[in-house]
Amino acid sequence: MPSLQYYDIIDKPLMTEKSMSLTEENKYSFYVHPKATKTQIKEAVEKMFDGVKVDKVNTMLSTPKKRQRRGFAAGKTTRKKKAIVSLAPGSRDIELFPGL
Questions:
Q1: pLDDT over threshold 70, residue 86
Q2: 1, 22, 23, 55 — which has fewest CB within 10 A?
Q3: pLDDT at residue 19 greater than cutoff 90
Protein backbone atom coordinates (compact mmCIF):
# COMPACT_ATOMS: atom_id res chain seq x y z
CA MET A 1 0.00 0.00 0.00
CA PRO A 2 1.40 3.43 -0.85
CA SER A 3 1.99 5.76 2.05
CA LEU A 4 -0.89 8.07 2.90
CA GLN A 5 -0.40 11.83 2.84
CA TYR A 6 -1.92 13.92 5.63
CA TYR A 7 -4.57 15.38 3.31
CA ASP A 8 -5.67 11.84 2.33
CA ILE A 9 -6.17 10.70 5.92
CA ILE A 10 -8.93 13.05 7.11
CA ASP A 11 -12.02 12.82 4.90
CA LYS A 12 -14.43 15.21 6.61
CA PRO A 13 -15.58 16.28 10.07
CA LEU A 14 -18.36 14.28 11.68
CA MET A 15 -21.27 16.63 12.37
CA THR A 16 -23.77 15.04 14.73
CA GLU A 17 -25.44 16.28 17.86
CA LYS A 18 -23.21 14.11 20.03
CA SER A 19 -19.99 15.14 18.29
CA MET A 20 -20.90 18.83 18.56
CA SER A 21 -21.44 18.45 22.30
CA LEU A 22 -17.98 16.86 22.58
CA THR A 23 -16.37 20.02 21.22
CA GLU A 24 -16.98 21.65 24.60
CA GLU A 25 -14.57 19.07 26.05
CA ASN A 26 -11.98 19.77 23.28
CA LYS A 27 -12.80 16.52 21.46
CA TYR A 28 -13.39 16.60 17.71
CA SER A 29 -14.74 13.81 15.48
CA PHE A 30 -13.67 13.04 11.91
CA TYR A 31 -14.25 10.43 9.24
CA VAL A 32 -10.81 9.09 8.35
CA HIS A 33 -9.25 6.70 5.84
CA PRO A 34 -9.98 3.10 6.89
CA LYS A 35 -6.29 2.10 6.87
CA ALA A 36 -4.98 5.13 8.76
CA THR A 37 -3.29 4.51 12.10
CA LYS A 38 -3.64 6.60 15.24
CA THR A 39 -0.21 8.18 14.82
CA GLN A 40 -0.99 9.10 11.21
CA ILE A 41 -4.28 10.68 12.30
CA LYS A 42 -2.50 12.66 15.03
CA GLU A 43 0.12 13.99 12.60
CA ALA A 44 -2.54 14.85 10.00
CA VAL A 45 -4.62 16.90 12.45
CA GLU A 46 -1.56 18.77 13.71
CA LYS A 47 -0.47 19.58 10.14
CA MET A 48 -3.92 20.59 8.87
CA PHE A 49 -4.80 22.90 11.77
CA ASP A 50 -2.16 25.40 12.93
CA GLY A 51 -1.38 25.60 16.65
CA VAL A 52 -3.24 22.39 17.54
CA LYS A 53 -1.62 19.79 19.79
CA VAL A 54 -3.28 16.37 19.92
CA ASP A 55 -3.32 14.56 23.25
CA LYS A 56 -5.15 11.34 22.38
CA VAL A 57 -6.85 9.64 19.42
CA ASN A 58 -9.66 7.07 19.67
CA THR A 59 -10.75 5.20 16.56
CA MET A 60 -13.67 2.95 15.67
CA LEU A 61 -14.72 1.02 12.58
CA SER A 62 -18.34 0.87 11.53
CA THR A 63 -19.44 -2.41 10.02
CA PRO A 64 -21.10 -2.34 6.60
CA LYS A 65 -24.87 -2.80 6.67
CA LYS A 66 -26.78 -4.97 4.22
CA ARG A 67 -28.95 -3.15 1.71
CA GLN A 68 -31.54 -4.82 -0.51
CA ARG A 69 -31.43 -3.74 -4.11
CA ARG A 70 -33.97 -4.45 -6.81
CA GLY A 71 -34.53 -8.06 -7.63
CA PHE A 72 -32.10 -10.55 -6.21
CA ALA A 73 -29.07 -8.26 -6.08
CA ALA A 74 -28.04 -7.36 -2.55
CA GLY A 75 -25.20 -5.13 -1.46
CA LYS A 76 -23.55 -3.53 1.50
CA THR A 77 -22.84 0.05 2.51
CA THR A 78 -19.25 1.22 2.67
CA ARG A 79 -17.10 0.58 5.71
CA LYS A 80 -16.20 3.78 7.53
CA LYS A 81 -13.66 4.64 10.20
CA LYS A 82 -14.26 7.40 12.73
CA ALA A 83 -11.69 9.11 14.89
CA ILE A 84 -12.27 11.17 18.04
CA VAL A 85 -9.32 13.49 18.60
CA SER A 86 -8.71 14.91 22.09
CA LEU A 87 -6.71 18.13 22.18
CA ALA A 88 -4.06 18.85 24.78
CA PRO A 89 -4.78 21.48 27.43
CA GLY A 90 -3.64 24.90 26.27
CA SER A 91 -3.98 23.92 22.61
CA ARG A 92 -5.76 26.10 20.10
CA ASP A 93 -9.33 25.11 19.19
CA ILE A 94 -10.20 23.74 15.75
CA GLU A 95 -12.49 26.05 13.78
CA LEU A 96 -14.91 23.80 11.89
CA PHE A 97 -16.93 26.79 10.70
CA PRO A 98 -14.48 29.65 10.11
CA GLY A 99 -15.99 33.08 10.48
CA LEU A 100 -18.70 32.10 12.96
A1: yes
A2: 1
A3: yes
Which stretch of DSSP H or E encloses residue 61?
A: strand 54-62
Which pLDDT score is estimated for 2?
Answer: 62
Using a 10 angstrom Cβ sphere, with 0-12 exposed, 13-18 middle and 19 or more buried, the burial of residue 61 is: exposed
Q: How far apart are CA 81 and CA 73, in angstroms?
A: 26
Domains of the chain: 6-63+78-87 (3.30.70.330)
Mean pLDDT of 34-41: 94
Q: Are 79 and 62 in contact (CB under 8 A)?
A: yes
Which residue from 63, 3, 90 is spatially nearest to 39, judged by alpha carbons? 3
Q: How far apart are the first and last CA of the chain?
A: 39
How high is the pLDDT of residue 100?
59
Mean pLDDT of 37-56: 94
**Best CA proximity match to 43, nearest among 76, 10, 18, 6:** 6
Residues in the chain: 100
